[in-house]
């Protein structure tokens, strides 16, 4: 069961201490449970956080990467190799906030290939917009995102799929249980061996409903992951 914290563009040096509580909690809670916690802070904190988490069983991911695997003249960009070099083991690719600012399926495909080459595991985000949901073309959209995003990706072993309906991110809304079960099932039929996570407004209240949907392999958590108490609560309640 995965619990992935996506901090987005939040957090400065003083935010690093907030993870101490989670480290302490998880040390005791993990016993005999197959749980993975992965923190994806902004790139500015990856190096420091990775030092801090060195002797713990919590891992680190980045939130995006450039598509070119080698160094290059791309002002403001960071590639997968550089992220790996400072302690990231995972990277989120295809998040809807980046798709909305212009990332195409083709660009996402290049990023995925480059990240895998650099030895990062990929948290590959897919999801439909509200308009697409209303037009009842969710499956068609997901199918397209998966096909184009994973085009010519030979080994899918190091890929985790995060299903994040765009309309549920940061809105407090989550899909109806039956719909979510069916969509996750649809993804699992296409990606037989891959873990499929749910993301979008996961919080300590709705985790009780979400945990009854038994084909979900974990959660990608945005807002609630910045508050250690809420993050811990989500994990505890998932198992209560
Ligand atoms: P949220 O974000 O939990 O704040 O809705 C999830 C995400 O964007 O990954």
Throw out a few tags for this protein.
38% helix; alpha/beta; eight-stranded parallel β-barrel; TIM Barrel; 8 strands; binds 2-phosphoglycolic acid; 240 residues
List the helices and strands and how they pair.
Blueprint: E1 2-6, H1 19-29, E2 36-40, H2 43-52, E3 58-62, H3 80-85, E4 90-93, H4 96-100, H5 105-117, E5 121-126, H6 130-134, H7 138-149, E6 159-163, H8 177-190, E7 196-199, H9 207-210, E8 218-221, H10 228-238
Parallel strand pairs: 1-2, 1-8, 2-3, 3-4, 4-5, 5-6, 6-7, 7-8
Descriptive account of the structure:
It contains ten helices and eight strands. The longest helix has 14 residues, at 177-190. 38% of the residues lie in helices and 16% in strands. Helix 3 (80-85) links the parallel strand 3 (58-62) and strand 4 (90-93). Strands 1-2-3-4-5-6-7-8 form an eight-stranded parallel barrel, surrounded by four helices. The chain has helices at 19-29, 43-52, 80-85, 96-100, 105-117, 130-134, 138-149, 177-190, 207-210, 228-238, and strands at residues 2-6, 36-40, 58-62, 90-93, 121-126, 159-163, 196-199, 218-221. It is globular. It has 240 residues and is an alpha/beta fold. It has one domain: Aldolase class I (TIM Barrel, Alpha-Beta Barrel). Helix 1 (19-29) runs parallel beside helix 10, helix 5 (105-117) packs across helix 7 (138-149) and helix 7 packs parallel to helix 8. The two termini are 14 Å apart. The chain binds 2-phosphoglycolic acid.
């Amino acid at each position: 069961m995965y619990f992935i914290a996506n901090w987005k563009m939040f957090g400065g040096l003083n935010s690093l201490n907030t993870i101490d509580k989670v480290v302490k909690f998880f040390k005791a809670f993990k016993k005999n449970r197959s749980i993975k916690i992965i923190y994806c802070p902004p790139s500015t904190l990856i190096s420091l956080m990775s030092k801090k988490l060195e002797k713990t069983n919590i891992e680190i991911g980045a939130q995006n990467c450039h598509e070119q695997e080698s160094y290059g003249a791309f002002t403001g960009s960071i590639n997968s190799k550089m992220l790996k070099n400072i302690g990231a083991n995972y990277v989120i690719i295809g998040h809807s906030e980046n798709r909305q600012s212009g990332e195409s399926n083709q660009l996402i495909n290049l990023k995925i290939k480059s990240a895998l080459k650099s030895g990062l595991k990929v948290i590959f985000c897919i999801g439909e917009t509200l308009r697409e949901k209303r037009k009842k073309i969710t499956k068609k959209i997901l199918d397209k995102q998966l096909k184009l995003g994973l085009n010519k990706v030979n080994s899918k072993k190091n890929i985790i799929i995060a299903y994040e309906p765009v309309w549920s991110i940061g809105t407090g809304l989550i899909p109806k249980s039956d719909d979510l079960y069916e969509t996750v099932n649809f993804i699992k039929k296409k990606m037989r061996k891959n873990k499929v996570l749910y993301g979008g407004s996961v919080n300590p209240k709705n985790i009780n409903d979400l945990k009854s949907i038994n084909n979900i392999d974990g959660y990608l958590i945005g807002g609630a992951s910045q508050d250690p108490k809420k993050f811990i609560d989500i994990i505890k309640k998932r198992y209560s």
